[in-house]
Amino acid sequence: MQLRYSFRVYPSTGQRVALARAFGCARVVFNDALRVRESARAAGLPFVPSGELSRQLTAAKKTPERAWLAEVSSVVLQQSLRDLDTAYRNFFDGLKGRRPRMGAPRFKSRKDGRQSIRFTANAGWKITAGGKLRLPRVGDLDVKWSRALPSAPSTVTVVRDSAGRYFASFVVETGPEVLPTTDAVVGIDLGLTHFAILSDGTKIDSPRFLRRAEKKLKKAQRDLSRKAEGSNNRAKARIKVARAHARVADARREFHHQLSTRIIRENQAVAVEDLAVKGLARTRMAKSVHDAGWSAFVTMLEYKAAKFGRVFHRIGRFEPTSQVCSVCGVKDGPKSLDVRVWTCGACGTVLDRDINAAVNVAKAAGLAASACGARVRPGIVPAQREETGTHPKPSRSTAGQAGISVL
Known about the structure:
Strand order of the largest sheet: 2-6-7-1-5-4-3
Strand content: 15-25%
Distance between the termini: 14 Å
Shape: elongated
Helix content: 25-40%
Radius of gyration: 25 Å
Largest sheet: 7 strands, antiparallel
């Protein structure tokens, strides 16, 4: 399977200028190619293929108006054309129902907070013996290696985020790291008061990173609004706002990683409910829903389960997990959100709403779960580890790179 490893990089002043030039050239190539295709569509002409766009790019480098495109690596420009192809493919697949519907490709702006360029293996980039990232037409970048790469990377993407930070994102092929088998399985009910409620009765409080940082964010945003348009002080204030939001996002991501890793390591099978996050984000709870970040957490559970040989289940969002008694199975009808504890009318069991829902999530996935701390076991035989996930290609070692090998 393919995984992405990101590391912070610290370019010098000259390297920042070179990266800014590369970002701008990649953006111009993307916009020029999009304009060619949109002009052809408006004129009723056939769709312009990628080969023709590449030939036009080569010709544009020889013109006075676009001669500066030759100052950056040609691989960066070709990857920009491939990004446009991917955007069109996703758009057409959405129209055909093959994936969630997406909008048509749009022109990129130099004012976008996030800028990126990608280098493939044929670009000649490499990781030096001293642990630096050598990029063509840029130089050797200092990298903060927080862990070792599990194999030789195939591509590297250099990203500048809205807070002005630079990252190197490597794509590597990894094999499954099979963990010792355990009898434990768990169903997870996600919420707002408690971020996650496990079927074994464990309740994990919601950190509410955005809510806790609202006072500082409000002050930073107020200072930004008082700065004059186009002034240097406004640019500095915008960076302060972006960095404040970045700290919140980083803390949330770290919490998701730690919790998802713990759950995957402790359980052989994990079941979660497919929540309608987009619908909930249109309600009065929108800020709290976005602050929780359920979708990112579930995505981490899914790919880590595939990586470590665990079983991951996602049940339908219309399962009545809060209406069914997990003891006798009788459906007791819908309940308002203020009802946190209820008594089953059939068997008389007093049920905690959240724990009961977590147990029902596990049962809906075919897992035998209990909230009383007793031993649990899978209700169905999971697939063999050789049949789960993807089968990676053999890859080379990266023993010469520094870092700590962690998930």
